[in-house]
Amino acid sequence: MRALAAIVVSLAMTVAGCGLETEALDGEDDDLAEVEGDDPAATEDGKDDSATRLPLRFLPGELFLPTARIQDEVRRVFRTEAALEAALGIENPGIDFAREWAVFYTPGLARTDLLPGFMARIDTVRVSSTGLTIMVTTSLEQNGDCAPRRSRPFLLVAVPRPATPPPYTRFYRNDRTRSCPTDVTYLDGVAFTAAQLAASLRAANLATDAQLGAAGITGTQRSIITGGRTWPSLALVASTSGIGATTMTKLRTLGDSF
User: Fold this and answer.
1) In whole angstroms, what is the distance from residue 222 CA to residue 245 CA?
2) Per-residue model confidence as pLDDT tens digits over 191-216
3) I want to staple 128 with a disulfide (CB 3.0 to 4.6 A). Which of 41, 52, 98, 116 is the partner?
4) For residues 115 and 148, is the Cβ–Cβ distance under 8 A?
5) From CA 189, how far away is CA 186, in angstroms rounded?
């Protein structure tokens, strides 16, 4: 008589008071297992001066996920394509798992403290000095008193796969609220002080074609600016069809010389 036993361990550990979670890789299944004293370099406060920071690769285009998958908070490092597709309910959006891993974060849409303009961010992904732990710092960034912006309920990035894959993952939090100057005016999402408003308006009305071109304002945008003179306000320039944030940023820079 032969007996077959299978044991699957899937546990997540949260260290009380530290906003910290620990995850251990179980083979290629990306299972979670409780870990005790796994890596002294991956401290509870996330400080490891010799940790190696991995570059984040942001995926091109927009990514759409089933809303049911982002109702609750999720912070994961996906080491396989199968794990990503099973958890998010989508096809691989372009991550090369032969050389990359995927890092995902959503604060969860079910939260009651989410304000318009909130953003899910992944601040850093690091490998601890021992090489045993992937250290991921995420943040829920509320928009505070800043100009309105589009909310970002989740973020998926790719990072280089370490040559020697660390067996553990620790998550840290860096939640924050943006604070923006109150003495600025936003036009097309670009901030202008009172002095910059006046200088940029002068540039819009007085800059030559050569000066506009040197500032990167060419083609249709240059024709709009020169053809609309004399502009009574910079807000009217910004509200004109064909003028957007890029042109307003260039106009603000050009205004420094007027």
Assistant:
1) 14
2) 899 999 999 999 999 999 999 999 99
3) 41
4) no
5) 5
Lookup result for tokens 């109150």? 182
The β-bridge partners of 156 are 104
Task: Please say whether the beta carbons of 18 and 44 come within 8 A.
Answer: yes
Place of tokens 């004399």: 230
Q: Residues of the chain with pLDDT > 90: what percent? A: 71
* DSSP summary character for residue 109: T
Contacts 24+ apart (CB under 8 A), 193-198: 196/252, 196/255, 197/234
Parse the chain into domains and list their residue ranges. 13-177, 184-255
Whole-number pLDDT of residue 42 = 79
Output the 3-class SS for 50-96: CCEECCCEECCCCCCCCHHHHCCCEEEEECCHHHHHHHHCCCCCCCC
Angle at 112 between CA 179 and CA 180, to 5 degrees: 5
**Does the predicted TM-score (pTM) go above 0.70?**
no
